[in-house]
């Protein structure tokens, strides 16, 4: 029986090669294999019928409904018959033979840990302090459990030099500015941008920039800087005036929301960055997500996205396991609105939805949640290197120093133990190569309370992908924004 390949990717002409020094024809070394067919495939349905998602390679196939039901039964009971004929081994390869699926002969991800790649992105914690007080801030106002401090100019310059020295020749690199509130160190930010552009010109690297801010202190000279260079600026937003001010306390009782709106006016008058996004940190106190989303879109952001607060200094701001059901329902409500608007050819910048659909279209599949500890590192104010900006000053994720360079052994160890096929319960999950195992910061603090949510959101996105592919295929013709972002940011979810 032949299954129509409606969407998904055909096998590449050249299968992946084993690691150097590995005997040809022998399977590559790997960790424990995923358990059972439920980890390899998922049947889902859209307005156009039934479909099969194959985890390895993130491929999507059409299935006739009777066959879809049989595959569901097979994945739930691998020792049972498929269409009256038992599968000899109950493996994905057996299923491919039975259905005539054009699968490639060797897994794209086989459990072999990645080698540390060249650096592509480095964020600088230029000001480990903040002018606002937010109970849900993972960075504890930028102090990360320590004292407030600023990055010296010589450390910032050395960090840029380190990034350029460690990057692959001729590639684009991203310098990010984090905090705390990085614009409290605006003179340093301006200085580093000029220095990085000059240094990148000498080394043959195009430097892009990213900055995360509460936008309460932005000045006209900052706006002009953002407009003059390839900047992605991400603004922390928590809703309308009441919702935002309930979570972000400004000195003297002033409205953080009013100051944010004033910051948007500064950008409108003096220079807008190439990409201006809003990031909403969702807590138990956040209003209805669709209302927050549409409020953010109404403010003129190029993209509005949500992230559940899983780990916070004050547990009262954390989304608990029981709350993820409601969070999923509201995310899907936002996704349905985006699907309707985008299918009709109208602009609707819901970042989580747009990113997920473009990643599925590219066939994204990876054994890690992001580039943290791989192509992306973060420098503390003192010049220590850490896996990402959320893990600054955490000795468990220390990855070297600006002066001495990245710690290859620490990065290798991190990529070995973090491979999703070596993690429990990840290696038995069909969504593992889209999720990658979850944010390292969140997992190290809270474990994985969001697994059911992630599977639910990705199942919705798979359905939406099929329906968007039919209704508005032109949506996938252009790459998604942003133009520049730190490589440590999670993609599909």
Account of the 3D structure:
- This protein has 493 residues and is α/β, with parallel strands linked by helices.
- The chain is 34% helix and 16% strand.
- The protein contains 14 helices and 16 strands.
- It has helices at 65-76, 92-99, 153-166, 186-203, 220-228, 241-247, 256-270, 289-298, 324-343, 351-362, 408-417, 432-435, 440-446, 451-471, and strands spanning 41-46, 49-54, 59-63, 81-82, 85-86, 121-128, 149-150, 173-179, 207-213, 231-236, 275-282, 303-308, 376-379, 384-386, 398-401, 405-406.
- Strands 6, 7, 8, 9, 10, 11, 12, 13, 14, 15 and 16 form an 11-stranded mixed β-sheet that branches.
List keywords for this structure.
single chain; 493 residues; alpha/beta; 11-stranded mixed β-sheet; 3-stranded antiparallel β-sheet; 16% strand
């Amino acid at each position: 029986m032949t299954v129509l390949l409606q969407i998904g990717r055909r096998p590449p002409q050249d299968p992946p090669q084993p690691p150097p020094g590995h005997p040809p024809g022998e399977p590559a070394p790997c960790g424990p294999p995923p358990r059972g067919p439920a980890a390899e495939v998922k049947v889902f349905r859209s307005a156009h019928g039934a479909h099969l998602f194959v985890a390895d390679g993130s491929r999507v196939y059409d299935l006739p409904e009777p066959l879809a039901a049989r595959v569901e039964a097979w994945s739930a009971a691998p020792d049972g018959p498929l269409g009256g004929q038992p599968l000899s081994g109950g493996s994905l390869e057996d299923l491919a033979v039975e259905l005539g699926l054009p699968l490639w002969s060797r897994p794209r991800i086989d459990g072999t840990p990645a080698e540390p790649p060249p650096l592509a992105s480095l964020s600088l914690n230029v000001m480990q302090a903040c002018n606002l007080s937010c109970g849900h801030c993972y960075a504890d106002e930028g102090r990360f459990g320590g004292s407030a401090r600023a990055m010296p100019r010589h450390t910032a310059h050395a960090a840029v030099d380190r990034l350029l020295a460690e990057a692959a020749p001729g590639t684009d690199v991203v310098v990010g500015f984090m905090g705390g509130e990085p614009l409290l160190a605006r003179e340093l930010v301006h200085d580093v941008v000029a220095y990085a552009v000059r240094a990148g010109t000498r080394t043959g690297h195009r430097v892009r920039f990213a900055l995360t801010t509460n936008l309460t202190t932005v000045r006209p000279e900052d706006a002009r800087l953002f407009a003059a260079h390839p900047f992605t600026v991400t603004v922390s937003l928590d809703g309308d005036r009441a919702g935002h001010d309930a979570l972000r306390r400004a000195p003297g009782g002033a409205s953080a929301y009013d100051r944010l709106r004033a910051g948007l006016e500064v950008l409108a008058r003096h220079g807008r960055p190439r990409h201006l996004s809003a990031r909403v940190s969702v807590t138990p106190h956040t209003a209805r997500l669709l209302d927050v989303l549409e409020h953010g879109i109404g403010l003129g952001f190029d993209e509005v996205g949500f992230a559940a607060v899983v780990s916070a200094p004050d547990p009262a701001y954390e989304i608990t396991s029981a709350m993820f059901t409601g969070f999923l329902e509201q995310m899907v409500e936002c996704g349905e609105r985006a699907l309707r608007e985008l299918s009709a050819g109208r602009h609707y910048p819901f970042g989580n939805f747009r990113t997920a659909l473009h990643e599925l279209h590219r066939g994204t599949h990876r054994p890690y949640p992001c580039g943290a500890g791989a192509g992306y590192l973060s420098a503390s104010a003192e010049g220590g290197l850490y896996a990402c900006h959320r893990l600054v000053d955490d000795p468990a994720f220390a990855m070297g120093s600006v002066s001495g360079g990245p710690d290859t052994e620490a990065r290798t160890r991190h990529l070995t133990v973090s491979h999703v096929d070596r993690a429990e319960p990840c290696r038995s999950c069909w969504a593992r190569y889209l999720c990658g195992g979850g944010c390292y910061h969140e997992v190290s603090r809270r474990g994985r309370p969001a697994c059911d949510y992630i599977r639910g959101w990705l199942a919705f996105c798979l359905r939406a992908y099929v329906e968007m592919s039919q209704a508005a295929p032109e949506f996938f013709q252009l790459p998604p924004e942003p133009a520049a972002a730190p490589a440590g940011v999670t993609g599909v979810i």
